[in-house]
Amino acid sequence: MPHINLPEGLPGITAGFAFRPETAKPMRELAHILLHEPSSLTPGERELIATYVSSRNCTTFCELSHGAAAASHLGDPAVVKQVKTDFAHADISPKVKALLAIAGKVQQDGKLVTAADVEAARKHGATDLEIHDTVLIAAAFSMYNRYVDGLGTWQPTDPAMYEQMGHQLADKGYREASVRQPVEVA
Amino acid sequence: MPHIPLPSDLPGIRGAMAFRPETARPLNALVEVLLTGPSTLTRGERELIATYVSSRNCTHYCHSIHGAIAAAHLGGNEALVKQVKTDFTQADISPKLKALLVIAGKVQQDGKLVTAGDVEAARKQGATDIEIHDTVLIAAAFCMYNRYVDGLATVQPDDEALYRERGRRVARDGYVTVSEEYLASHAR
Fold first, then answer.
1. Considering the domain B43-172, what is its CATH architecture?
2. Structure ipTM
C-alpha cells in the first residue's frame, strides 16, 4: 500500500504525477527532452540507459516501463534483457557500452566517474553532449526511481500492461500521461 | 577539471546548466516548485532537507549552497544548518521536521527503505500527505542534482563567502530568476 493517499489504480510514477501535477510537469518535461527529443543517441539507446539504471536501483515499475519503451524502439526485447543482466555481452555499439559504464557509476555516486571512463567513451565516438546526457539520464533516474519507491507506489509486474505503455511512450514521449485511467491487472 | 568543457566562470550545477539550457529549464522549474512554491513547510525547512541529503551524498557544491540558502531563510543561523548536517536529532528544529529528515535520509539511500512506521511517525508529529510527498521528492531530486554535479566533475569551490552571498540572492529571488541571468549570458 502506498505511504500516502495516492489515486487508486494508477501504477508507479503515474500515481505520484496525478497526486501532485505541479511537480509532475517539470519531471515529465525533463524525461521528454532527455529520452524523446532529437539527439545523436537514438531513443532506443537512451531508453536502454534509463532501463539499466532503474534495473540497478531495483525499481520494478521504471525498469519494466522503460525496458518496454526500449524494446518498442529497438524491436528487440532480448537485447533489453541482456543489457540488464550483462551489457558487456549485449549486441549494442561499443559507444553505448562505454556510456553504460558511466551511467552505472553515476547510479552509485557521480564521484566514481573517472577521466578514463570519459576518455573511453570519447574513443568510441561519444560527444560531449552525449556524455552530458548520459550523466543526466542516470542522475534523473536516480530521482525517478527513489520517488516511485519512496512513496510505496503500486508496481504491478503484468507484462501486457508494460508492453502497451512501452509502445505509447515510444510513440508519444513523456509530455502527456501514459496511463489516464485506473488499470486492472491480473 | 570537468569531464566535458563547461563554462569556467560558473561553478557547480550552473556550469552544467549553461552547457545544456534545454534541460536546465525543467531542472530549475522543479526545484522552484519544491523549494520556493506554496507549501505548509517553510522555505527554510525545505532547504534544510535539500542540504541534509546533499551533505549525505557528499556533494560539496550542493550542500554548501543549499545550506547557505537555508541559513538566509533562517535568520542567518549557520550553526543550525551545521547541526542538521552533523546530527539533526539534536538540532533546534521541530519534531515534525526531524521525522521528515528520517524519511529523506532513507530515500537518499534507497526509496524502498522508507517504512509505514517512518511515515506514521511523521504523521504523528503533524505531517500531511503533501508534506510527506514533497519530502520524498526533494530527497529524490537532490539525489539527481548531486549526481549531476559530481558526475560531470563540475568545479566546486571551497570559499564559504561565495556560497553565503549567492545563498542570500537565491533566497531572495528564487531559482528560476537567478538562472535566467547565467543561461542568457552563456546562450549559444
1. Up-down Bundle (1.20)
2. 0.98
